[in-house]
Amino acid sequence: MGDFEDAISEEMLPAERRQRLIEWFKTNQAGVTQDLARMFNISVSTIRRDLDLLASEGLVRRTHGGAVAIRNRATFELSTDMSRRTAVEEKQAIVEEALKLIEPDQSLLIDTGAVICHLLADGVAQLDHNLTVITNDLYVAKALTYRQNIKLIVPGGACRFGSFSLLGEPALSYLKDIRCDTFFMSAAAIDEECVSETMLEMVQLKRAMVDAARETVLLADSSRFMARALHRTAPIERISTIITDPGLADEDRVRFPTPNPAFRIVQL
């Protein structure tokens, strides 16, 4: 990024700056407002106006903390660090809505591989309900360890390098005999046909979890929608409920089938 930053000057014309911003989003999937303002040597209010303009032209999708590119790369995956800094308010509101669905004595599956699942685990850890939680995510497991009201089950597998995800066996075999109440699912990409992922091993685990649950609740901020990742995970009709933020445009939402999935749009 150094050469890019060196090429930016305070005297850059607005049109030129916005073109540079467009070029930046071609190779960087998400940007935080403060970081972009510092990179372009302009005020936060100016970069917000630039992002609003690009969003109005359909080049990026705005979040409360910055913006994400309109994704068209089926193999792209945000880093965990960037995901933690992107759509922060949206993710937190989605999690708070998801927590309302949890009742005492339920059995839950919590997905792996997404920051929003980690936030959900942090919230579940604060509940007083007696729960059974099954997860193949090491962060989720750690957050729920030493909670006397929670029976925690980690089926196991091989840890994916650089992540908290345990993939493969023995989890896949274990999940074949599980029947739980709710699977809280994440996704790399969602459109009106299916939920999809960038990794085949992740797809296999998520499919087993969908099959093991009475209902599947998908937690996803609006940047995940109207995009496709490389591997189809599940038909969209297999999703009972989608919880997302107001950034999902009405014209996109109405393209989804009814009654499944049902949408719950959080307030920010």
Mean pLDDT: 87
Question: What is the architecture of the largest domain at the second tier of CATH?
Answer: 3-Layer(aba) Sandwich
In CATH's first tier, which class of the largest domain applies? Answer: Alpha Beta
Helix-strand sequence: HHEHHEEHHEHEHEEEHEEEHEEEHE
Estimated helix fraction:
25-40%
User: Could you please say which CATH topology of the largest domain applies here?
Assistant: Rossmann fold
Strand order across the largest sheet:
6-5-4-9-12-14-15
C-alpha end-to-end distance:
33 Å
Structural class: alpha/beta
- Principal-axis shape equals elongated
What does the largest sheet look like? 7 strands, parallel
Strand content: 15-25%
Please count the helical segments. 11
Radius of gyration equals: 19 Å
The total number of structural domains is 2
Unreliable runs: 1-10
Total beta strand runs = 15
GO molecular function, one term: DNA-binding transcription factor activity
Protein name: Glucitol operon repressor
Keywords: Transcription, Transcription regulation
Domain HTH deoR-type: 14-69
Can you put this structure into words, describing what you see?
With 268 residues, this protein is an alpha/beta fold. The chain has two domains: 2-70, Arc Repressor Mutant, subunit A (Orthogonal Bundle), CATH 1.10.10; 89-265, 3-Layer(aba) Sandwich (Rossmann fold). It is 36% helix and 22% strand. The chain contains eleven helices and 15 strands. The chain has helices at residues 2-6, 14-27, 33-40, 44-56, 80-85, 88-99, 115-124, 138-144, 171-175, 200-212, 250-253; strands at residues 30-32, 60-63, 66-69, 107-110, 131-135, 150-153, 158-159, 166-167, 180-185, 189-190, 194-197, 213-219, 231-235, 241-244, 262-265. The strands form four sheets. A seven-stranded parallel β-sheet has the order 6-5-4-9-12-14-15, with helices on both faces. It has a three-stranded antiparallel β-sheet with strand order 1-3-2. A three-stranded antiparallel β-sheet has the order 10-11-13, with helices on one face. Helix 8 links the parallel strand 5 and strand 6 (150-153). Helix 3 (33-40) crosses helix 4 (44-56). It is elongated. It comes from Flavimaricola marinus. Keywords: Transcription, Transcription regulation. GO terms for molecular function: DNA-binding transcription factor activity.
